[in-house]
Structure formats: structure tokens, C-alpha cells
Amino acid sequence: MPELITDINGNIVTASGKKVWLGIRPESAEKEYPGDDLILTFTAEDKKGKGRELTIQAKASDYIAVYDKKLLWRANLYIYKKESALGDIDWNDAHPWNVPPAAGVEQEDARPKSWSAAWGYNEWNRKYDGSQTANSLSGLAAGNGGQVVTFPEFTPLRTIPAGNETNPTAGNVIGKTVAYSYPDHPEEKPDDSKGDAGSMDSPFDFVWKMEKQKSLLASAYDTSGDVKIASGTSSWDDTKSPKNRWNKYKRGTTAGQAFIPSLGLYYGARHLGFSTTSDEDGLPSDTASTWNWKYTFEAGTDCVGFSQRAASYKGRKYSWWSLPRGIMETGNTDYNTVQDGYGKNDEKRNFVRATGIYTINSWNIINKNRTDAATAENLIELKKVVPGDIWVKYKVAVNVQDTNKDTIPAHIAIVAYVPPNASELSASELMNQIILVEAEYNNKIKTVIKVLSIGDYNNNHLVSSREIYPGISFMKGSLDLHCDSWAIRRLK
Predict the structure, then answer these.
(1) Residue 286 near residue 273 (C-beta atoms within 8 A)
(2) For residues 217 and 248, what is the distance between their CA atoms, to the nearest angstrom?
(3) CA–CA separation, 114 and 99 (whole Å)
(4) What whole-number distance in Å separates Cα of residue 241 and Cα of residue 217?
């Protein structure tokens, strides 16, 4: 380490006056754990030869919180979003995890000097924008540890702007994120009950699926979005659907499988009976033969698929089940075979629970009924929250959570941001500033987003006006979040 000194303002600098940022890594995962607190202590030696030493320790309020960087990096990879608090750059670019993606493969740029293979590889540190012909991660070039995925634009099932369901415009497009897809499909399960598997794409799987859809669109439509009448005509060259209509995405056939963004949300709404009022109009019945359900599958992720996939990196030690690998991780392009890996009755798909009759795989940090006033104890609990903790929503009170199949969680998300001045805030201020990253569907929302706060859910409506997508905003007090109680949990 170079010689460090303190300037007149108390900043630690090099001998040449450059500011120093200290990155601290635990010695091993056996000794430290997400949620632990580290108090910085170091010894300064008198360089003038008098042999004096001075021990310096940070204030208790200036502790450093240990968090799971790998889980949080993977969660943020699902969305490209410039953040003003980070200097108007994306989270992954501001917090790179730039280590090799596999043994014998070097990452772009320099990796941390302290890294070794014992710390594990970043298997998702691969550059992908869909233009590559690879069908596996191993076929992609290594990245620089930042936002290595470039997301395609797609035409959403739930038309935007609102009011254009009958006549979608060119503004009916979403990009820079992964589509939400409800985990429901008539043909995906490997047993006779079927209906739940799927909707667990990684960012790489989503891009891969949309590129397959792009090829099908090119074979069916010309550049004007009209059905081709001759093989020599021009071809559609986009992942957006022609005429701004989701319904024009191509279905699969015996000739090959097809993937449609949010298809599970389309099917789940009609199969299970939740609202379709935000959907594009004129859609066929879910029983229409044109769907070819044995060959037509969803592209996207639901809330569990997103959260559990983010935590399913190689070498992790959590008791929460690690999801089986997807298309790009296995290099297997037969989606039926990939789906079979999830097991009968979706046994690998799992919520995070700290109480109740189901498998316990976490501790409660805070568990609160929405309508209960925040207490002094709640504030103490909230101050223990770190990025990477798991947030869970229920549509029942705390005392009956997970006591039967009707009281299981309704939603799950990952804590993305905790304000650095958390110790100085009231409970309501802190809840309003703890931001979640989540795969959500509600009203016109149907993607991975990083917008809503714990305070929004605790209020059951937005505590302030919010832009969800460019040009799509919801006013303060709007957006019913269907929350009766919620918890923040730390994985065991």
C-alpha cells in the first residue's frame, strides 16, 4: 500500500495529494456475513523515527455494512438505469464486479488485485447485445464487470401510454430492462398438473429469446410491418412487434419454438382471472389454436424468478435453493429440457420465509403490518437493513403469514438502496428512501423496475409522484400496491 497522509480537511490522500478510496473485503465467507458491521480501525506510525503509534478508530455511527455484492450486482444487471446519485451512470458501471467469468478467461481491464479463484468467478461477466451468434455464456466475450448486457426494445402486452389500447402508437415500446412474465403456462411443467414453471429468465436468456423472436418476425413481415407476400421482399429487422401491436409477435410451430415477452402475464390473467383492462385490445382467447402452446413460450421473469436467479450464483452458501441454470448458462436451446430441470410441482422455485409451516431459509429483520404505526423498535430494525436483503409482501396480517397455502407471500423484491444517512432519519423517512429492485406487474407496470420504496408499500400507494417509464408517471396517492404486511429478511 502506498504511503497515506491526512490533509488539512481530514481527507486521506496519497503523498501527491490524490484522494484515496479504501475498498475492504472480508477474509472469507466463513468469517463474515451479509449484515455484519465493520468498524474501521488502523494504526498510524510516526515516520520521524520517534517510534510513536496512534490508533485511530471510526465512530460507531460510521460503520461499514457488509453486503452481498454478487447478489446485488446480478439483480441490477436486469435493468439499465442511469442514477443521479451515482453521477448519472448505471449501478453496475458504478459498482463493477470485474473478475474473470470462468477459469482461463480474462476479463476486460484490470481486476481487483486482491482477487483469487477462491473468491469465485463472475459467470455473468460476459458482453451480450443479441448480435452474437452464441447459444451459451461460454461463447460470449468477457466483459468489464459493469452493465455488460444491452437490452432489446420490445412491444409490451400492457399498452403505453394509457388510453391507446385500441390504437397503439410508436410510443408503445419499452427497453433497457427485462419484461415481466407471470409463471403460468399450459404446457411447461414436466408433470400432468403443469401451469407454473418458466418466467425465470436471466438477462442473457431474455435477450437470446428476443433475438429468436426477431428472426421469426423477419421471416413473416416486411419493413412496413405487413405480412410478406413474396420471399424476395424486405424483412422486418426489429425486436419490437410490427404495427406497435404485441399480438403480432410470432407463435411457435412444429418447425421451432418461439418466445414472446410477457406471455405468462397474458395467459395467467386469463387462466387465473386477474385484470386484463391494461392489455392491448383484440387479443385472442387463451384457448385459441393459433397459440400452439407446445411450441410457444414466454420471455421474461416474475418476481421469484428474478430474485432467486440473482441469488443463484455459483459457490453461494445460502439455504435458499439455487435455481437450475437457464438456456444461456447450460448452452441447451431445447426449452422443454431446460424447464424439466425445475422439477415436479416447481420444487426448485421458492419464496424467502422466516416463520410458518414452510421451509425456513431466512431471518426477519423487520416484519410489519402496513396499518400499524411505526415504533421505535421498527426504526432500530430498519437501520439494520443493507442492500441485498430480501423484501417480501403479503396480502394478510403478520400473525397468519405462511400458515397455509392462502397466506403465502404475494411478491418478493431485493433491497437495492439504503441511504447513507440512515442513522439520522425517522422511520417514515427511512422507509421512503429504501428503494427496491423488483420484477413487478401492476396497472401499466410489466418489467423489472427500480423505482418503488418500502414506504410506498407501507402506504399502499405512492408517497410521491413517480415516473415508471419515459412518459409514464403515476401521481402521489395512486397505484394500489395491494399490501397488508411486509417483511425484510436476511438469507440464511
Answers:
(1) no
(2) 9
(3) 11
(4) 8
Q: Which amino acid is at 80?
A: Y
Nearest in space to 244 (alpha carbons), one of 323, 314, 317, 171: 171
**172 and 159 Cβ atoms separated by less than 8 Å:** yes
SS3 state of residue 96: coil
* Mean pLDDT, each 10-residue run in order, the chain (492 residues): 65 73 64 74 70 74 80 98 92 96 93 86 97 96 97 97 92 97 83 65 98 97 94 92 98 96 95 92 95 95 96 92 92 87 70 92 96 96 95 98 95 96 94 98 97 98 95 94 98 94
Residue 283, all three cell numbers? 387479443
Do the Cβ atoms of 484 and 394 come closer than 8 Å? Answer: yes
Per the DSSP assignment, residues forming a β-bridge with 446 are 441
Q: Nearest-CA neighbor of 187 among 250, 257, 248, 255?
A: 257
Helix (H) or strand (E) holding 304: helix 303-310
DSSP 208-234: HHHHHHHHHHHHHB-TTSPBPSSTTS-
CA 69 vs CA 122, 179, 308: distances in Å: 11, 24, 15
